[in-house]
Design goal:
CATH superfamily of the largest domain: Jelly Rolls
Shape: globular
CATH architecture of the largest domain: Sandwich
Largest sheet: 4 strands, antiparallel
CATH topology of the largest domain: Jelly Rolls
Number of helices: 9
Structural class: alpha+beta
Strand content: 15-25%
Helix content: 40-55%
Number of domains: 2
Strand order of the largest sheet: 1-7-2-5
Number of strands: 11
CATH class of the largest domain: Mainly Beta
Order of helices and strands: HHEEEEEHEEHHHEEHHEEH
Length: 238
């Protein structure tokens, strides 16, 4: 279960805590690509755990445009803030067909009451997601296009490695250049040009839905990628 692997990076989960996580998987749902799970401004919304597939979260603008805030991969929570804050401040849309587990507010409160360490682990996961948003803001504001894209792909690789779906060799990636452009504040043409530059520099390739790191260390230096904000050094609580 991707969520178990993710939370296990912070807490050495006990049998009781694993049982609570398993109990949260009662209501499974499938969504096709393009069908919103959560809509901006929606209230009384359930949260979800992403079991398989990829999704994106974005903000709608008054002029009809949108800004992708982040992409979600297996093991991530979807719409958790809308449960805790009663209204969603963004939309969540599947990038691929996804399978999720629906979690009601009562489920979360019961899990938190019965397993405080699990609540702390989920708080860690949410804080980690916030740290990624901060890093994305720095990227858009201070990194050039090539550094921004390289950093973004390295971050995705690290997130997927945590759940066993990536490595320093690379990872499968269903994102189009248009989606990456929307997230990085670039045009699709610019993303294509940067990918070509990174390929010609023998740093990475992105072909047929596969990101391949040719020179992982060189790419890390190029993007000034320090993964410490992802806090994946191993369980802090045992």
């Amino acid at each position: 279960m991707p969520l178990v692997r993710k939370l296990g990076a912070f807490v050495a989960l006990s049998g009781a805590e694993l049982a609570v996580l398993e109990g949260l998987r009662k209501r499974r749902r499938t969504f096709v690509a393009g069908r919103d799970l959560v809509q901006q401004g929606q209230s009384d919304q359930a949260a979800y755990i992403l079991m398989s597939g990829w999704a994106c979260s974005y903000k709608d603008l008054a002029n009809g445009q949108r800004q992708i805030v982040d992409f979600q991969v297996p093991g991530d929570f979807l719409g958790l803030r809308s449960v805790l804050l009663h209204i969603s401040d963004h939309t969540i849309e599947p990038v691929t067909q996804i399978e999720v587990t629906e979690i009601l507010k009562s489920d979360l409160l019961e899990a938190f009451a019965n397993t405080p360490r699990l609540a702390l682990a989920i708080f860690w996961a949410v804080s980690r997601d916030e740290a990624m948003v901060v890093e994305h803001l720095v990227g858009i504001g201070r990194r050039n296009a090539a550094e921004r894209l390289a950093h973004f792909l390295l971050e995705l690789g690290a997130r997927l490695t945590l759940i066993g779906q990536g490595s320093k060799e690379g990872f499968d990636c269903p994102l189009t250049q248009y989606l990456m452009a929307d997230a990085l504040g670039l045009s699709a043409v610019h993303v294509n040009r940067v990918l070509r530059h990174l390929r010609e520099a023998d740093l990475l390739t992105f072909h047929d839905g596969r990101v391949k790191f040719i020179d992982y260390d060189g790419l890390t230096d190029f993007a000034d990628f320090d993964p410490s904000y992802l806090d994946q050094g191993g369980p802090l609580l045992v």
